[in-house]
Write a structure and sequence with these properties.
This protein is of the alpha+beta class and 163 residues long. It has a domain of 114 residues: Alpha-D-Glucose-1,6-Bisphosphate, Chain A, domain 4 (2-Layer Sandwich), CATH 3.30.530. Helices cover 24% and strands 43% of the residues. An 8-stranded antiparallel beta sheet has the order 2-3-4-5-6-7-1-8, with helices on one face. A hairpin with a 3-residue loop joins strand 4 and strand 5. The radius of gyration is 16 Å and the shape is globular. 18% of the residues are buried.
Length: 163
């Protein structure tokens, strides 16, 4: 199985507390996920984020198909980072690190996701045919939505790469 990596970086014109309050609230994930993904939180988002928190979602990656996705928040350092890992869902592995750091004029958000697809060679083909494109679209949407909500820091570079 091939291990893939998604890396995203964006600078926002907000303070660390505002960024943390928004990003660490699981309910806000639906705000920054494209509507066509049919994203709905089923349970686990009723309290502030903590290590060991289990969150259940339903997501529709394709028309007329939905799947339950269960993640666990495995690490939290308030106002600095948190990690979520898939426990059940569409990936063979999903390990997502979220970092927040101060920069001039606001904060910089970094996402680092290591993931694997199931089904061996078929999963690798699916990655090339549509999974990579879909993840890119989701994170570009997220970047655009966060920029609309909080404003971007002019002159700071954005980065999105999937390898």
């Amino acid at each position: 199985m091939k291990l893939y990596r998604l890396y995203s970086k964006q600078a926002l014109a907000i303070d660390r507390k505002t960024a943390w309050d928004f990003l660490s609230d699981p309910k806000n994930l639906s705000v920054i996920t494209p509507g066509h993904m049919g994203f709905h939180i089923l349970s686990g988002a009723d309290r502030p984020m903590f290590s060991g928190q289990i969150i259940q979602y339903r997501v529709s990656p394709f028309p007329f198909y939905s799947i339950k996705w269960v993640t666990e928040i495995t690490h939290v350092k308030a106002s600095e980072y948190f990690v979520d890992e898939q426990r059940f869902g569409p990936y063979a592995l999903w390990h997502h690190k979220h970092f927040i750091k101060d920069v001039e004029g606001g904060i910089e958000m970094e996402d680092l996701i290591d993931y694997k697809l199931p089904f061996g060679v078929l999963g690798q083909m699916a990655h090339q045919l549509f999974v990579k494109k879909q993840l890119r679209e989701i994170f570009l949407y997220r970047e655009q939505k966060l920029g609309q909500l909080f404003g971007e820091i002019k002159g700071n570079s954005k980065s999105l790469a999937i390898t």
